[in-house]
Amino acid sequence: MSNPFQGFEPVPPEQVQEDLSYDEALAAATKLAPSPGRYYVKLKGLYGGIGIGLFPFDQTCSSAILRNAEQTARALDTLARENRAVARIIEFMLSTSTIGLFLGAHAEILYTIFQHHASLSMKAWIPSLFAMWQTPEEEEVTVGDVAGNGGPVD
């Protein structure tokens, strides 16, 4: 028989709070325990946001992120249910700071200003940042390359 408390370490006596009632302690423990689907919606939104944010600079990578957002979010959510350390990392990733809220609120404004006022050479420089991680053997297939996308060959 497996131990249902495997992975949970006992709390040191100096950290135990004696003033909690049974109901309060149960509510706190229930809130901390990963529940099915607890992170799924937020993770799916996170991956969707990353994919949409990346789209103007790299359509290939952003499409892959967007296509797999649901499956990746579901897998991470399942992992968080099984592993408390993963759940803590996900909690940290999904917690929003005041600076994060500020940057998120201004992202569309900054992007619009960049698109309107940046020179063509600067606009071309951004996608080159993503290209530097590609190895010379990798060849990007564009949408215009119908034969490379599995379409009919003339």
What do you see in this structure?
Among the domains are: 64 residues, no CATH class; 36 residues, no CATH class. The model has no long low-confidence stretch (mean pLDDT 74). It is elongated. The chain contains 6 helices and no strands. With 154 residues, the protein is mainly α.
Total count of helical runs of at least 4 residues? 6
* Most strands sheet: none
**How much beta, percentage-wise?**
under 5%
Q: Briefly note the structural class of the backbone.
A: mainly alpha
- Uncertain runs are none
Mean pLDDT, nearest integer?
74
Quick take:
This protein is an all-alpha fold and 154 residues long.
List keywords for this structure.
single chain; 154 residues; mainly alpha; 6 helices
Write the layout of secondary structure elements.
Blueprint: H1 22-32, H2 40-54, H3 59-82, H4 84-94, H5 98-117, H6 120-131
Helix pairs in contact: 2-3, 3-4
